[in-house]
Amino acid sequence: MKDRYDVAVLGMGAMGAAALYQLAKAGVKVIGVDRHHPPHDQGSSHGDTRITRLSVGEGAQYLPIVRNSHRIWRELEALSGESLFEQCGVLVMTSSPDYDANDQTDFTQRTLHLANTYGIEHEVLSAEQIRQRFPQFSPVQDSAVGYFEPGGGYVRPERCIAVQLKLAEERGATLLKGETVTQITSDEQGVTVLTDQRTIRADKVVISAGMWSRDLLGKPFDRLLRVCRQKLFWFELEDNARFAPVSPTFIYYHGGGDAGMSYGFPPLPGEGSLKIGTEQYSEESSPDRLDRTISESEASDMFDTHVRGKIAGVTSRLAKSAVCAYTVTPDSDFIIDEHPTLKHTLVVSACSGHGFKHSAALGEALAQWCVRGRSELDLSAFSLRRFDGLLD
Ligand SMILES: Cc1cc2nc3c(=O)[nH]c(=O)nc-3n(C[C@H](O)[C@H](O)[C@H](O)COP(=O)(O)OP(=O)(O)OC[C@H]3O[C@@H](n4cnc5c(N)ncnc54)[C@H](O)[C@@H]3O)c2cc1C
User: Side-chain half-sphere of 232: how many Cα atoms within 13 Å?
Assistant: First the structure.
């Protein structure tokens, strides 16, 4: 006997939890399935914090999405009583010997340009102003430039997922945890989902499988998506660390290429450590092959390259570390579209390492897509068709 639902959401991480909540809120008969027990630390949505900001240097097409997310985080906080979105401000800065103020590809310049174009509240900070406001960055070079957005900050990914799943369940959603989807087929009437424990029939399906997407989605995603291992480090602060009482989330460009950028978060209340991470897009991995442990040499490389001489008040003692993965598209933008061969099936989740801040709003948009056939947000920039040339 098959269970029949209006919508099945496959994968209950950042995107899936948001879609489930919004669908249940809209009164849709919805089921979610996850191979793990979200929130968990096996995918792309763990590690305590995720940056959010309105001036999204990745492109103007993301601005309406993150705006909606900021609204929804506050709605979720009011409903749950949980603290999800900390508006401690975001500091994007370039402090590099090669810095060229006319370089429009520089991420800080792109961020500034977008903020000016769309009237996003911000301040431009000189090196001296950065040092005065945020003494932890006192080693910045004299040529450094900073963009400070007071309305940005960080969200708490595990809490956001847990809250949305709980609220979805309270509104009637069925959640299956520890159950793996093994096959998806479709016909004119709907979609059949096979798991390792049952068969589910749904009118529509949302596939939000994160780094497992490539296998679950098949062609042409197997040729488009790459899984890239990412590292997160929490370094203990010095006892007398001069961190401002409210420190910003930061994105710090201090050289060229992947190795010249880091990002990080203020110490969380009650924790005496600074979380810092980097990005890399050159080494590919897969969910099965992902090395989930950080070695001692990776921790010392990280400290030497990104902390020593760049951020004051931080020791090289590692409080904890984590490995996470990006699911990356060829142009590092999202893919959010109907599946080209599976009918009634929407695909989200290839978010190239910058999806969390948008997830609440994408959940809302996906729910509208399922219910009304279209979303209020224009998601056409994330269409699969832009890769047609690559797939010929
Ligand atoms: C280190 C790191 C730092 C990041 N920093 C930021 C940031 O600062 N700001 C930002 O906006 N974004 C950031 N991102 C990106 C963001 O976190 C991700 O884009 C987002 O969390 C991905 O959510 P998801 O739902 O696509 O994937 P996930 O949350 O991983 O969810 C996928 C789910 O699908 C389930 N699943 C997979 N296959 C199956 C199957 N066959 N059957 C059943 N279930 C299945 C998995 O168990 C998992 O729960 C970062 C990502 C990483 C890794």
Answer: 21
Q: Out of 328, 355, 373, pick the residue that ends a domain.
A: 328
In three-state form (DSSP H/G/I as H, E/B as E, the rest C), the secondary structure along 203-237 is: EEEEECCHHHHHHHHCCCHHHHCEEEEEEEEEEEE
Decide: 321 in ligand 1 pocket, CB within 6 A. Answer: no
Residue where a domain stops, chosen among 304, 328, 352: 328
> Smallest Cα–Cα separation from 90: which of 167, 166, 152?
152
- CB of 180 sitting under 6 A from ligand 1: yes
Q: Structural domain of residue 231, as residue ranges?
A: 90-150+226-328
156 in contact with ligand 1, CB cutoff 6 A: no
What is the Cα–Cα distance from 243 to 134, expressed in whole angstroms? 7
Q: How far is CA 137 from the centre of its chain?
A: 25
Is 253 found in the same domain as 145?
yes
Tell me the per-residue pLDDT of 164-213, one tens digit each, with 9 for 90 and over.
Answer: 999 999 999 999 999 999 999 999 999 999 999 999 999 999 999 999 99
How many angstroms separate the alpha carbon of residue 68 from the centre of ligand 1? 19
Å from CA of 160 to ligand 1 middle: 12
Question: Helix crossing, 356-372 with 157-170: angle to 10°?
Answer: 30
Quote the CA–CA distance of 154 and 161 in Å, as a whole number.
14
Domain count, the chain: 2
Task: Give the integer Cα–Cα distance in Å for 174 and 163.
Answer: 15
Is this structure's pTM higher than 0.70?
yes
Q: Which residues pair with 174 in a beta bridge?
A: 31
Query: Locate tokens 């490389």: which residue?
Result: 301
Q: DSSP 3-state assignment of 378?
A: coil
* 3-10/30-34 β-pairing: parallel
